[in-house]
Amino acid sequence: xxxxxxxxxxxxxxxxxxxxxxxxxxxxxxxxxxxxxxxxxxxxxxxxxxxxxxxxxxxxxxxxxxxxxxxxxxxxxxxxxxxxxxxxxxxxxxxxxxxxxxxxxxxxxxxxxxxxxxxxxxxxxxxxxxxx
Amino acid sequence: xxxxxxxxxxxxxxxxxxxxxxxxxxxxxxxxxxxxxxxxxxxxxxxxxxxxxxxxxxxxxxxxxxxxxxxxxxxxxxxxxxxxxxxxxxxxxxxxxxxxxxxxxxxxxxxxxxxxxxxxxxxxxxxxxxxx
DNA sequence: GTTGACTTTTGCCAACTGGCGAATTATAAT
DNA sequence: ATTATAATTCGCCAGTTGGCAAAAGTCAAC
Lengths: 132, 132
Prior knowledge:
Two copies of one chain form a homodimer. The first copy, chain A, is mainly alpha-helical. Helices cover about 60% and strands about 0% of the residues of chain A. In chain A, helix 2 crosses helix 3. Chains A and B meet through helix 4, helix 6 and helix 7 of A and helix 4, helix 6 and helix 7 of B. The structure holds a DNA duplex.
């Protein structure tokens, strides 16, 4: 449908699924869409209908209509769409990192990024000192 | 498809089209959807995809996503809380954590879980000590 | 009534979606 | 290395969507 696509949608879907992390089978169980179809969708040999997009959105952590705009069913600035995180073109989370972290309780996960924030501010201070 | 449907969507579409007023041909010219398909859709023997709903929305005076909810592609009020449903199975990575971490270089990500590992082993030692 | 233009419906068809089961490929475990 | 097991992909299929062209159905002027 979108000739210039390079299949960014499918790649995004796989990226999100893997980083959660989920298998096709698990996502299938949550969404009611067959694993084979999900796989084909991610790799771009099938284009997902609005129905499937709706079913898989929440399990993947998307807003209900977020995937619609990404799929071109809704224009980018269409109403409502809470300007959520613009992480799409941004950095990627290493799958191994995701897997390890996912095994920790959410509070630990949050602590980890809290500590990361501290380290970053310390590093920043050090860098400023060194620059003097 | 839905035997009990009464086809409210199709009837609504026809009502709006006639009210404007437009012929199937005219709506077809504006939307790029064939008259025959529009006719079948209104009468309920075809169910419109998200693509055609998007195409005919504005010509009929609807918001772009308005027909999506009417067609059941979008729930009546998309609640914008992605935090509500989580923890499907065990081992899920918090989306916020994922977003934050994803913005760091992969080496930083790896360092982070390295540090996490250290902290865990320290905690384990402490716990054993306390248990004594 | 008949002709004419216009609107809607119908017959048929290609293309696509999405599911199921088998085959293949990765991942552990012994 | 070999086997077991889980994950992904492939082959094939039924059901739908949506377009085109031809067939009705409508309504006016003549």
